[in-house]
Specification:
InterPro entries: DHBP_synth_RibB-like_a/b_dom, Sua5-like_dom, TC-AMP_synthase_SUA5. With 187 residues, this protein is an alpha/beta fold. The protein is 26% helix and 21% strand. It has a single domain, classed as DHBP synthase, CATH 3.90.870.10. The longest helix is centred in the N-terminal third of the chain and has 12 residues. The protein is globular and about 45 Å long.
Amino acid sequence: MNTEVNSALEILNKGGIILYPTDTIWGIGCDATNAAAIKNIYALKQRDDSKSLIILLAEAKDIFKYVANPHPDIVHIISEFERPTTVIYEQAIGLPGNLINTDGTIAIRITKDPFCKMLIKRLKKPLVSTSANISGMPSPQSFNDVSDEIKNGVDYIVKHRMDEVSGVTPSQILRIKEDGRFEYIRK
């Protein structure tokens, strides 16, 4: 796993795009602070840049670096989620404009996947994570389901967990209201 982290890091630090396994489905990623790399992901996915992307963080405490005013108990709230959960936060900070939604929000998931955690910690920045498909097409359930167009369009394909074929699902997506209630966007 260490070799793959090193190889992916080399590409990410040069502004490249990787195809990699996450704690949900296979994703396309880049350094979430690199606006040019983010633009390249939109182009590869043929996705309208008004549809924002999510970022992965290794630790819940890192939310405070990228969200101006998160819920005071956010670290505890996130620790209670049993399955991968993407939370939409208001008042994104410290990220390029083409990553932040037009309403100022950012979607963040704290990854539990060991490979992703190590990669993010070594990168010392958040990682963009978007499904490895052309916009409007089905999300790949395994590496074998990723289209050649995506495979040929990235700068590096991580060779970790390529053989896994177990059916995985995308994360649930929610907003945490000011009163602490959850508004589910995708369960």
